[in-house]
Amino acid sequence: MIDIVSEPIDVATLVGQADGGSGGLVLFVGQVRASTGGRNVVRLEYEAYRAMALAELEKLAEEAARTFAISGIDIVHRVGTLAVGDIAVAIVVRAPHRAAAFDACRWAIDTLKRTVPIWKKEVFEDGSTWVGDRP
Amino acid sequence: MRVRVHLFAGLRERLGAPEVDLEVRDGATVDDALAALGRRHEGLAGSRFTTALNRRYVERSAAIADGDELALIPPVSGG
Q1: What are B56-74's pLDDT values in tens digits?
Q2: Could you give the angle at which helices A98-115 and A50-67 cross, rounded to 10 degrees?
């Protein structure tokens, strides 16, 4: 499953999907950190170019399936306003053997952060900033 | 011909709109559209972004067709 959602991500449902017995399952969960660079985070605001972000996630999943010996990959990213501790992204990779599942999951989150048009604004107690944006 | 420009994150805030419609000449490239947008919005100067046409990353030399969807993609920060 590839999706971009506004509601909380239910990791248990993602992990619990019937898959016919893959062998190994690796789960990556990205949560909102309490502080960045020594500043306390109040909330994060995520924004996506939804149509393109979904297309890029689909491409990413297809490339993962071609590159690694995995049997499946699910990626769900949340957008909107998130509080500290909320889940922003979840990736589930299933594979017959653990090495491919770990490798594919690491590659998937690294690639997502480089290529998928999603942005986050960090809102601190004393200001806010779009991450990576230096006008 | 007309092209709709989609803006996001800091770029959207600096230019003050999520979408801008531009008129460009036939045969215009992404670069031409960016030049036209830059003349209308000072906030574009000095901004870092890549470009996408109809939801695919493209070089700035890519040709635009009437009704295309151009997006300015500031450095992404998902995850």
Answers
A1: 999 999 999 999 999 999 9
A2: 150
Structure tokens at B17: 């709109």
Helix extents (H) in chain B? 9-15, 30-40
User: Which residues in chain B have their CB less than 8 angstroms from residue A135's CB?
Assistant: 10, 14, 43, 46-48
Residue recorded with tokens 């053997």:
A97
Neighbours of B59 (CB within 10 A): 11
- CA gap B2, B63 in Å, rounded: 13
Put simply, the chain B residues between 54 and 73 with a CB less than 8 A from any chain A CB are 55-56, 71, 73
**Residue A76 main-chain phi, psi, to 5 deg:** -130, 125
What is the C-alpha separation between A125 and B44, in angstroms, rounded? Answer: 28
What digits encode the pLDDT tens for the residues A73-83?
Answer: 999 999 999 99
- The answer to whether B49 contacts chain A (CB < 8 Å) is no
Contact B79 A112 (CB under 8 A): yes
Paired sense of beta strands B69-73 and B2-6, if any:
parallel
ipTM for this model: 0.94
In the block, tokens 């003050």 appear at: B16
Question: What residues are paired with B52 via a beta bridge?
Answer: B57, B71
Question: What is the residue type of A3?
Answer: D
Interchain proximity B77–A116, CB inside 8 Å = no
